[in-house]
Amino acid sequence: TTADGCSNIYSIVLDKEAKRSRSDEDEVVSNIVLLALLEQSKRVEINDVIKSEIDDVMSEVRNAILVDNETIVSENMPHRNMSSMEGAADNIVNGNERTILLAPSPSPLGSSSQFLMPVSEAVLPVDPIIFPGSFNPPHVGHMQLARAAISVMKKKLQNESKSIGDLSFNGGDESSPALLFELSMTNPDKPPIPREDVIKRLNGFSSMENSILPENWGVLLTSAPLFAEKVPILSDFLPVEKESSRGTYRKLTFVIGTDTMVRIIDPKYYDGSMPNMIGVLESMKRKGVHFIVGGRVEQKKGVNDGPAAAFVDGLSELQSLPTDLQEMFTMLSEDEFRVDISSSEIRAAAAKQSVGKNL
For 209-232, how does the pLDDT look when each residue is reduced to its tens digit (9 = 90+)? Predict the structure, then answer.
């Protein structure tokens, strides 16, 4: 951080072909820190001769640590309030940031819950699972769907590794894919979610017991309510890979419900055009998008006019797509995921309880 409150961000994508050892890579990073210090020293140095000497040293350092196709990228970032959830929410609403990652940290009070802290520079893990939602409030149903998605993804990763002869992925807990709950603070048809409501929803995650939450998790605040916006924004925060080590082009996996899936593949949301819908899905597939779909319970008229719960999995709607596009969707079976509760039911119960307390 500079004296004027800005931050200089230095980044580099290391060339795997250079075949550096871990200590070699550490040396590269150490020299980038040296370059940053030299760059800052030029700003306060008034002697042009010394500035020229600093430039020569910096050039020597770059030549010593970089191979032909590597470049150190330096970016000057204005000061942002990233010390709290409130500051993170403000940065999204004010348009200062497109996405902010909040990572769980142990509670300072020693409880079994955690609290969320903004990460200053978000870099998403490779092949992340993104769970979009309003999370109003986050509840056990969300956590069960998250765990089901992780379980299915672990099996996929294990099968993909076996198919190319890579036995390094054993499917244990240490190999659990990262899952990020994504909360978009903006909506194309409504005002932004008030900061107070966002904090309340984030605190809902923090207050959950560790045993309920996934193994490796975090929360993404974004300004991307539509998938057409989510994909390019989140893709910018993925680490650069020359090619997938598992022979798959999957880059982003979204966890969605059946109703969302039906909307994604419904031509009426694409000006009533089936070709338009197919084109959008094909574009998503080329960008490495994959979906895991959880079903829902629907109350229907049963025997003797009584209510009956039916599980809606969306499989019949999926059959309308070409086979290659159907492969973008992994459908969770009823055995893999079923929760007979919704956020609206939880909110209704909470409102009823609140009314009761006030009587």
Answer: 888 999 899 999 999 998 989 999
Kindly give, in sequence order, each residue whose CB lies less than 8 Å from that of residue 27, ignoring residues fewer than 6 positions away: 65
Q: Is there a contact between 177 and 152 (Cβ–Cβ < 8 Å)? A: no
Amino acid at site 84: S
The 10 Å Cβ neighbour count of residue 37 is 9
Distance between CA 156 and CA 179 in Å, rounded?
15
Q: How far apart are CA 153 and CA 288, in angstroms?
A: 15
- Residue 95 is which amino acid? G
pLDDT per position as a tens digit, 64-118: 989 888 888 887 665 555 568 888 888 888 888 889 999 988 765 555 667 788 8
Q: Are 102 and 85 in contact (CB under 8 A)?
A: yes
pTM of the predicted structure, to 2 decimals = 0.71
- The one-letter amino acid code at 125 reads P
Contact 287, 254 (CB under 8 A): no
- Sign of the Cα pseudo-torsion (194, 195, 200, 202, in order): positive
Phi, psi of 152 (to 5 degrees): -65, -40
